[in-house]
What we know:
Elements: E1 2-11, E2 18-24, E3 30-35, H1 37-47, H2 57-67, E4 70-81, E5 84-93, E6 96-102, H3 104-114, E7 118-120, H4 122-128, E8 139-140, E9 143-144, H5 147-159, H6 165-168
Parallel strand pairs: 4-7
Antiparallel strand pairs: 1-2, 1-7, 2-3, 4-5, 5-6, 8-9
Helix pairs in contact: 1-3, 2-3
Amino acid sequence: MIEVVIDSIRVSLMSQYRIVILKDSTTDRYLPIWIGPCEADAITIELQEMPPQRPLTHDLLKSMIRELGGKAVHILINDLRNDVYYARVVIDVAGRQIEVDARPSDAIALAVRAKVPVFVSDHVMERHSIEPEEDVERTVGGKELDEDRLSAFKDFVNSLDLDDLDDEEE
């Protein structure tokens, strides 16, 4: 099992779906997983520490596990079949671990609320992760970045006094 962290949640310009980008915690491998907008919002709300007025579905799930005497241990994204990822929520109940089938998006939303680690099975990460190209930071649109030209822009941005912006709005 490989521990991952949520790197980002991206918006697809081609559909209403979102992509959660999971990053291997020890290397530069990334695993993109398509998720729905509601699940993306549920993950984002928790990561940004914006408490909802009323519990969301994943808050309810966390509370139910706790009230029934269980404790979420971790989640595991364990398979990909026919372009669909599968996950397991591992719950400790009185010293016995049980696994519950879940969509990765729901499992991740629960994991961020329960503050438990997210893992990806070795075979899923080996077959479906991506690694950025070495020079990806030095190119834009296939063209080499001219750092001398960019340094003038960087100097200009750094010289801006943004503290005065709040005063101008009044």
